[in-house]
Each structure stands twice: as C-alpha cells, then as structure tokens.
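[step 3/7] fold_predict: job queued, chain A
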Amino acid sequence: MRILFGRLRSKGGSKFQGKASAAARSSIVLRFLGGCQAEELGMFIRLLLEPLGHHAEGSCVEAVERAVGQTDVAAVLPLGRQHSLLNVITVVVDKLGHLVQAHLPRIMQIVLCISASVSAILDRREQLKPGCINPLKNLRRLGVLRVLDFFEGFESYAFSPQELDAIFQAVVWPQVCRLPTESPYSPTPLLKLIHAWSKNARCFPLLAKQRPDQPECDILLNVFSLLSAKKITAATVAVVLDIAECLVTTPDFVATEAAAALDVNGCVVPPVVEGAVVSADELSLGSRLLLPHISALLAFFSGVVGDTERTRRKKNRTRETEIDILATVQNLLRRCVDATAFLAPLSKLFSVVVNKLPRMALTKTFLRPDQPECDILLNVFSLLSAKKITAATVAVVLDIAECLVTTPDFVATEAAAALDVNGCVVPPVVEGAVVSADELSLGSRLLLPHISALLAFFSGVVGDTERTRRKKNRTRVAKELSILSK
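[step 4/7] structure written:
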C-alpha cells in the first residue's frame, strides 16, 4: 500500500513516474485498489489522509470545534498540499465510492475540518498576505463541493445528528448570511448545496435548521432574499425558483430500509396560521417551509411583470419614433434633386430595424411612385428590345412571362399567409375587353401592360427567321447558278 501511495503521489521521474503521466498513473493505481481487500483499502485511506489524521480524532462536532479553536495562521499546512488532498479525495471517492463506504465518516470529518479551518482563517483577513486570500477561497469552495458530492453521490448515507451539526458549523453558518451579496452574479457552491437539498425530500429538515439566537442565519430567508438583489443573473434566478418549485411539488419523504429519515437538531417548521384555507396536515413539509417566503416570491413576480410592461411600452415608443423618423426621411427625399444617392446608406437600416411597422415604413422609402421607370416588370421586359441579348437572358424573361400566365392565384392557409405589400399597383383591365378582371389571375393582369413588348419581340424573331430563310435560299440559288455557269 505504501508503494502504491508513493506512485500515486510522485511527480518526478520518467515514463509513468513523471508529472505528465499523472492521469495514467492514477488510473493504474485506482484499478489495482479496486481489487484490494477492505483492510488494505483502509490502510491506503489512512496513508492518504495522514497529514490531516489528527482531524479524525473524536466526534465530528468536536473535531470541527477543535479545528476552529486551534487554527494558527502562522502554522498552517501548505495550501497547495490541502488543495491536492481534496482533489485526491474527490478522485478516490468518485472511482472507489462503492468500496470506501466504511471510511466515508472519516473522510467527511476531515473535509469538514479543512473547511472550518479555512473559514476561520478567512475571518482573520487582516493577518493574511493579499496573495493568500484567493487560494483560501478556492479551498473553501472545494470543501463545499466535496460536501455536495457526499449528498449527491451517497443519497442513502446515514448522517448522524452530530455530522449534520458539523456540516452546518463548518460549511453553512459561516457563509449563509453572505448569500444575498455573493450569489446574485452566479450560483455559489453553498447555493448549489442548498439546491441539491431541495431536490431530495429526505434533506428538507436541513432547510428548516435554525442557528440558536441568530434568526438572520435562516437558510431559506437568505436564499429568497436573492430575488430582491439589483443585479441578479438569470442563472441565479433559475436556481432560486427551482428551489421554490421543488419545495412545493416534492412529496414528503417516506423512510425505507435503505434510507432512514434524517434526525436534525434545531429543525423548526413554520406553523400554519389559524383560519387558513388549508390545514397543516394537508400541506407537505416543503410547502410549509415555503410559506414565510411567499411574499418575497410575489414581490419578485410583480417586479418581473412590471419590467415586462415597461419594456413593452419602451418598445412601443421606440417603434413610434422609428416610424416618425422614416416619415421625415421620405418627405426629405421627395425634395431632393438626386434622391437615389441616399438609397444605398438607407438600405443598411434593413439590418437594424426589426419591428414590423418601421420596416414597412422603411420599405415605403424605396418606393418611388413619381418614377415609373422603377417598375420591375417594365425593366424586365425591356430587355427583349436590347440589341445584344443572349439566349440565356431571353429564356429567363420568357419563363417569367410563362409563370405569370400559368400560375393560379395564391390561396392563404394557416401555414402561409398572404403578403401585405405597400405600394402594390395592379394594372386595370380595359373596359370592353374580351375577358373581365375577375376572369384573369393576378399574374395575367401584371403581364397585360407588357404584351406589346412580347409581341414586338416575337415579331422581330419571326422577321429574323424569315430573313434568315431568304438569305439561305439566295445562297443556295447562287451556288446552283455558279455550278450551271461552269
């Protein structure tokens, strides 16, 4: 066991003994430990925790109180060493959790003593060098996360009342009053631990635990005080609201042979007011724990509704301002000598203006009813009169004409509504025409003003074909005459 422990801890050497191969070496050692007997595994755990073995003496509460009372800022185990021990504990418990059940109380007690000692040191910040504060905070964070791992990884672990008191003394009480100031920006490890408790009805009594003569240390009071923080993030809001939801929806815990109910000292359940609609027997434990904080939840939701309403009004004001500005731009463009010079910079607004009505107003800016030469189909069918037009262009233009004639009118459905286009002008049908406007599709009516262009094109094509045929005939006749002359 000592050789294995040395291999696990070594950081120098070559091949698997080097620092770069720590993960491979750790994996090999842990696989070997998986086949060891309980006595051998216990020896390895003792070697692992030997630097902090004095914390494993006595009961859990006594060890935590002793760790706090005997903490000497000038004589502390190197912070890097403590950090490494917590990381190794994480790996061992994660990989060998089913084999170290008998050693969990010892591991828990040492983790709590480290957390309590670190919290006691942080309370004396004036005696510390500035460079030590952040590593100590990181150690405290790791300690809380290791406790969280115990509750999430060993849900049926039989916590004794003394262990639960030690958990609160080492992890909860030193930090719970700082939740409203430290957790708004992101969920802290302590808030994550409380969140984990709220997901398990077996842990609900922990949320009701009170610190003697210090009501400000109430866990749920500090949790729901976060909702009144000015700069609370969405991540923290989600955690707090999920805690409330779990308290309301989770049924009471029923003890089984595998998991007994927790015996928590100082657990105070809020009473139900006399004359209430429901009695205490009708409410679950989680619902009763939530009762004193309903006002905080309602105040938060009221603020959310108010913010939503203010945001909606602000958006309406912004929308109206955009429409007014665009209307002013349209009026100015009508008075410009060369309005087209401003269309390019105005087109960039399409990537900024997102509301429907302002975008419609922006579209009107590009519609020029005083310039008929901007008609789309007019410019399309004008291509047919060009002198040098390619066969590919002719094919596209004729295909547009064919689609306009053959495509039936669009019928709106639930999946696709009709487009609402401003400045849309449909050519009228001349009175006395063979067909009425109702008999023509929209595409056919759009094509009416351009039939003359199409007829002129086809007439030219026929003329060109006839001239080509005559030219070929003349060429053939000339060849025959030249042959006869010979």
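[step 5/7] annotate
The first helix runs from residue 2 to 9.
The mean pLDDT is 82.
exit 0
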